[in-house]
Specification:
Layout (H helix, E strand, L loop, with lengths): L2 E6 L8 H15 L3 E6 L14 H5 L10 H10 L2 E7 L6 H8 L5 E8 L2 E6 L7 E7 L9 H14 L2 E8 L6 E2 L2 E2 L1 H19 L5 H8 L5 H8 L4
Parallel strand pairs: 1-2, 1-3, 3-6, 6-7
Antiparallel strand pairs: 4-5, 8-9
């Protein structure tokens, strides 16, 4: 059985669009037999990295000098096979999620190598993570708005020497609901999200068809602009 840790970085936690998409994704993973633990970045008391001398790299490799809730998260990450990072698009990430990503450094082996033209490291041998993927929601119309958060997740996977397993992206996620209720189109999207979670665990990868279904337009670009640019 695979084991996954999913971190929801949305400040709105259970009430946000990110949770609306992440919930069926986790359910799909569980349907396929994965054990998934969900954590909220906003509930974890994680301070910014302040050890500019790279204590966890140079002084005590594998140990963080800051004693906060990351000390609870590190053992969970070492035992997981899959890490799911879930976040809304900010500029580029919510602060709590960025703090957690920055504080993953103690999980890296302090040994550098050159891979495909870039300086990289790898997870330490006691870290089980083999796949990192992104689940993200945004308000703008186009998928290209996710470019920065996708690159951050992909770079994290490359730096750790593990697979970037892809990105579940839902642009203009607010259009999935009307007056607080899920629309038929929204329901179809969430069904595809659940299928993506199942595919990831059962087949080892999410299909392009499923990911395209999740990201398909629910409104024209012109109509979205009219909604955002209306005169008050």
């Amino acid at each position: 059985m695979s084991k996954a840790v999913a971190i929801n970085g949305s400040p709105r936690m259970e009430k946000g669009n990110t949770a609306m998409v992440l919930t069926p994704f986790i359910q799909g993973m569980m349907d396929a037999g994965s054990d998934v633990e969900l954590l909220y970045a906003n509930r974890l008391k994680v301070k910014p990295c302040t050890c500019g001398e790279m204590y966890c790299w140079n002084e005590m490799p594998g140990e963080c000098c800051i004693k906060d809730d990351m000390q609870l998260l590190y053992p969970k990450l070492r035992e997981a096979d899959i890490l799911v990072l879930a976040t809304p698009v900010y500029i580029p990430l919510p602060g709590d999620m960025q703090n957690i990503i920055n504080r993953l450094c103690p999980l890296l082996d302090p040994f550098l190598e050159f891979r495909e033209g870039r300086t990289r490291a790898r997870f330490r041998k006691d870290v089980g993570i083999r796949k990192i993927l992104l689940v993200s929601t945004g308000g703008w119309w186009e998928k290209e708005n996710f470019g920065t958060v996708v690159r951050i997740t992909e770079e994290l996977a490359e730096d750790a020497g593990v697979e970037f397993a892809g990105a579940v992206l839902r642009p203009h996620a607010f259009r999935m609901r009307e007056e607080g209720e899920l629309t038929k189109e929204g329901e179809a999207v969430l069904n595809a999200v659940r299928r993506a979670g199942y595919e990831l665990v059962k087949e080892g990868a999410m299909t392009k068809e499923t990911l395209d279904t999740i990201s398909r337009p629910l409104i024209s670009q012109e109509e979205l602009w009219r909604r955002y640019n209306k005169v008050l």
